[in-house]
Amino acid sequence: MLRKVAKLLYFDNWNVLIIVFTEMRDKLRKWREDNHRNSEQIVDVGEELINEHASKLGDDIWIIYEQVMIAALDCSRDDLAWTCLQELKRQFPGSQRVKRLAGMRLEALEKYEDASKQYDSILQDDPTNTAARKRKISILKAQGKSAEAIRELNEYLEQFVGDQEAWHELSELYINEHDYGKAAFCLEELMMTNPHNHLYCEQYAEVKYTQGGLENLELSRKYFAQALKLNNRNMRALFGLYMSASHIAACPKVNATVKKANVKYAAWATNQINRAYQLAGRGTKENKCSVKAVEEMLESMQITMS
Amino acid sequence: LSYFCLFHSGAYCKMLLHAAKYPHCAVNGLLVAEKQKEKKKDSHSTPILCVDCIPLFHGTLALAPMLEVALTLIDTWCKENKYVIAGYYQANERTKDFRPNQFAEKVGARIAENFSEAAMIMVDSTRFTMGCYEPILTIYDHHENKWKCRDCNADCFEDWCEAQKITSALLEGRSYESLIDFDNHLDDLRNDWTNPEINKSVLHLC
Fold first, then answer.
1. pLDDT at position B1, please?
2. Which of A32, A40, A42, A279 is deepest in the core (most CB within 10 A)?
3. CA distances from B179 to A3, A228, A235, A243, B198 (A)
């Protein structure tokens, strides 16, 4: 009787271990697919997975080594990064992809010249290696050389015009330099190739709003509205619609028809915002203050706008 | 004329938790103080107590619309709680970059319009440690349209030892993983930017 029970228990424990292991592996995969930069968590889960369950991972282990290595660099865990790098070097000798990881480690150690040489050697063998070129631009960014980074990135995009990540990076570099016109251009490229992406629409609207002026405000309102059409739960787009419509309505230059239309848009947005807060606040005491604050904020803005 | 800004432990620790949650991003936020009653003519001796910190954004900071929403919303919330927006903090994307940029100066100036003793605070990430051995802020005061730098030391705190102890403990415990900023709130309205859980933890450690 006791032996049977013991066997059952053992079987159950084993199942639990399997569940834990698959959960960890799936978490890592999800974070990889979503491109999450939650490096501390990746290191926590990944290190345990590598140390305790390497044999069960099969071929997944190589991509996990890569993922954990990059996260380890983020967390200044050079010991862990080095271990992963060695495993990858052993398995894939002469690989460009692993060479790039070695370069990233040098970057993390702020050995920018050595890192640059590493990427140059990749580019000598393979001048079309986009990853190496982008790492070189990242080095410029890390050194605070924004003007050079922008120049290099523009050159890169002339060759690789379809690289969305690069267009997005460039738009951010321009925004940080307060060059909103050029940032808008980058986002226009992204919207053209991704017409259903509500985030690009919304970011474009934010850039136009920041640029200022009546024409840009109207454009921003249109794109906030478009973002909402693509995703009616985008709160930034909803707030943005409210703000842009309110500002247009309050502008002394607009005629009565435009003013009336924008007051309507702002009123619609107000209702939607209130609804969204009511829905979110249901049940929680803390959120009551948020709901109240939003209501009062919208009321007070309407008073100044009318 | 010297303004004097004292940090409450909770305000200081939330600033650092925000920076710790997004080490690869620029972050910014607001500081709020208790609204003073009518000031007497010669009262430069009354220090302003920064009682709380509202973390705002992470990543690309230099866009206007959501900042305007946050400022207006938090202003309304302040009025209900007899607070006033008293300062702005920013930690830049690059660790070694601890000087205020044009954007920080603009936001600081905007806040100074409503509160003349507003402070602009930059976080110096190069001195950021788990042990929090020294205050890592640089404070800028608005004088005649220019920002003048003032040193931040233990005197700038209501109780530096307490601030150090609490901040260090919360960093060790990875409380920053649950810190909510206004960006998180816009992603999901149920996320509460007043951070009641962290406030509770701070009180427990006091």
1. 41
2. A42
3. 50, 28, 20, 27, 7
The pLDDT of residue A204 is above 90: yes
Q: Which residues in chain B have their CB less than 8 angstroms from residue A297's CB?
A: 72-73, 75-76
CB B127 within 8 A of CB B134: yes
Residues of B within an 8 Å Cβ radius of A? 23-24, 60, 62-66, 68-69, 72-73, 75-77, 80, 94, 96-97, 102-103, 174, 186-190, 192, 194, 196
Task: Please report, for residues A52, A273, B71, the alpha-carbon distance to residue A293 in angstroms, rounded to integers and kept in the order given.
Answer: 50, 12, 12
Furthest CA-CA distance within chain A: 90
Cβ of B65 and A210 within 8 Å? yes
Q: Which amino acid is located at B137 in the chain?
A: L
Helices (H) and strands (E) in chain A, counts: 15, 0
Tokens of B205: 């450690």
pLDDT band at A280 (very low <50, low <70, confident <90, very high): confident
Which one of B32, B63, B98, B106 makes the best mutation probe of the A interface by having the most chain A beta carbons within 10 Å?
Answer: B63
